[in-house]
């Protein structure tokens, strides 16, 4: 039986998903992040499927979402990038908790996520060398370019100062794998994306694959583009993600 526990880990709200008979055992640890306007409960399917295969899965609540909401999430759309940046900052707190409680098997730590959670995954791979592997579902390793696209698409009545734009791009630069592919450090990193994605452009993922194909640090990057697939996770995609983590961490 799979256990789902609502917890406060270092004062951060999470769901912990794990086989009930293994709650006190050392297991490979995966942190899986939800998308924009969603909450941790929305990715329970992914947590459940991973837990069935022997992983301890942590589903964090992102800033401004779920129990951390401050009004409507969409009211914070100009603070979109603050959310994954905050998740990157909080990641070490989560890992330290499970390390201090001696619950991580052989330091096997993976990260994954959907949409904004996939963007968070890429940023974490750039920021944290403790992570052994990542799986990105409908995210992008191009946060700077994606941020520029978002800002360019804002309605004309939304005023954004040049200083705000400059600061946003500066903050994201050091977490951009397309600008710093050496930070992948030969770790396994898998991307799934649908070429009909209407929210996060698939071409950014495709372009990344082409740009890093001859870079030694990115030799373990893999990309699967699904023809006709939109911004939604199917059962098959979830199983693909699970199998990747089995290959990488078990």
Automatic annotation (TrEMBL):
Pfam families (UniProt xref): DLH (PF01738)
Gene3D superfamilies: alpha/beta hydrolase (3.40.50.1820)
SUPFAM superfamilies: alpha/beta-Hydrolases
Domain Dienelactone hydrolase: 20-231
Keywords: Hydrolase
InterPro entries: AB_hydrolase_fold (IPR029058), Dienelactn_hydro (IPR002925), FrsA_esterase (IPR050261)
Name this protein carries in UniProt: S9 family serine peptidase
Lineage, opening ranks: Bacteria, Bacillati, Bacillota, Bacilli, Lactobacillales
């Amino acid at each position: 039986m799979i256990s789902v526990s609502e917890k406060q880990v270092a004062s951060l709200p999470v769901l912990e998903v794990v086989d009930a008979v293994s709650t006190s055992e050392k297991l490979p640890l995966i942190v899986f992040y939800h998308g924009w306007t969603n909450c941790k409960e929305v990715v329970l399917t992914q947590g459940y499927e991973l837990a069935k295969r022997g992983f301890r899965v942590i589903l964090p609540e992102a800033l401004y979402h779920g129990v951390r909401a401050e009004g409507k999430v969409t009211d914070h759309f100009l603070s979109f990038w603050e959310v994954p940046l905050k998740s990157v900052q909080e990641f070490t707190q989560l890992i330290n908790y499970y390390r201090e409680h001696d619950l991580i098997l052989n330091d096997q730590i993976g990260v994954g996520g959907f949409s904004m959670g996939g963007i968070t995954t890429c940023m974490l791979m750039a920021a944290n060398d403790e992570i052994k592997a990542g799986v990105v579902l409908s995210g992008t390793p191009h946060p700077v370019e994606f941020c520029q696209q978002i800002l360019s698409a804002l309605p004309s009545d939304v005023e954004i100062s040049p200083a705000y734009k400059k600061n946003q791009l500066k903050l994201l630069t050091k977490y951009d794998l397309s600008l710093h592919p050496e930070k992948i450090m030969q770790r396994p990193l898998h991307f799934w994306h649908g070429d009909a994605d209407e929210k996060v452009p698939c071409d950014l993922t495709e372009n990344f694959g082409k740009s890093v194909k001859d870079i030694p640090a990115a030799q373990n990057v893999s990309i699967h583009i699904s023809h006709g697939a939109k911004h939604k996770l199917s059962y098959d995609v979830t199983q693909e993600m699970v199998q990747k983590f089995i290959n990488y961490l078990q």
